[in-house]
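ESCALATION

Customer reports they have been waiting on this structure for their group meeting. Please prioritize. Original submission:
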Amino acid sequence: MSYQAITIYTDGGCLGNPGPGGWAYVLSADGVFSKESSGSEHDTTNNRMELTAVIEALKAAQELGSVRIDLYTDSQYVKNGITSWIHKWKANGWRTAAKDPVKNKEYWLALDALASSLPVNWHWVKGHAGIEGNERCDLLVKAAMESIR
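Update from on-call: job pushed to the front of the queue and completed.
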């Protein structure tokens, strides 16, 4: 089955940086299907958890098929990274403007492969601003982190 529109909210977080971390996504498709998922890692960073949330969400969306995916993240790092910075990183041999190696390269490679094969529209939302999908993700992330603390 394929859907017309999928909406995804993602979030990631860390208790300390690095430290125990959690990621989560909430996905809805055409208002008739919904799924949420979360996970945790013992020793990670906030940025890795933000990236993992998006990667896992897009894997789930890929299985469903869709004409349009609207992905909402409260991470400027993720949104700017995948929509802007990644083009420069690739052109510079995965180096930053300061000539340093790009951090979390393996995550960016995985995200780029998924994003380039899906009809994703990227959106940034302010965290902790009462946006239902974002708030639900935040609760799932906190529970995931607490489960390994």
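Sent to customer with the following note: The two ends are 39 Å apart (CA to CA).
Escalation resolved.
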